[in-house]
Write a structure and sequence with these properties.
Layout: H1 3-9, H2 14-58, H3 63-67, H4 75-86, E1 92-98, E2 103-112, E3 123-132
Antiparallel strand pairs: 1-2, 2-3
Length: 137
């Protein structure tokens, strides 16, 4: 047997192991991408939800101020309207804050992860917020 054959004989199967490690790394990378893509989609939905709730709240005008020629929100009704718009969303935590000139809605949701769990991140918290102001009808 030649010296070259003896030297290469001990490395038999190393390509298979390298290929297996590469495939495993690729699966982890794709899984992490799936986790982040899911978080991105949920954030888009949360942004739409916060926008809708803030819009609902911004339509609750203070009628006393309106009669005096001022544009102001009824803060209690504005927060109630925003909370009502958010009530049918399970798993979403929301806070609303109404002032006389605007309402701000903040929403967040916790998402379980698939691949990030393997590196110690069992869930991601995704949040969005929206602010709306009353407009003259």
């Amino acid at each position: 047997m030649s010296a070259r054959r003896r030297r290469l004989g001990g490395e038999r199967g190393s390509v298979a192991i390298s290929g297996l490690l590469f495939a495993l790394a690729l699966i982890v990378l794709i899984g992490t991408g799936v986790d982040f893509a899911h978080a991105f989609v949920v954030r888009r939905d949360l942004t739409a939800l916060a926008d809708d709730a803030a819009l609902a709240g911004s339509q609750q005008l203070d009628l006393q101020a309106w009669r005096q020629g001022q544009l102001a929100l009824n803060t209690v009704q504005a927060e109630q309207a925003a909370d009502s718009a958010l009530a049918q969303e399970p798993g979403v935590t929301a806070t609303t804050q109404a002032l006389t000139d605007s309402i701000t809605v903040r929403v967040q949701e916790r998402l379980p992860t698939m691949m990030l769990r393997l590196v110690g991140i069992p869930e991601l918290t995704v949040a969005a917020s929206a602010t709306a102001e009353p407009r003259r009808p």
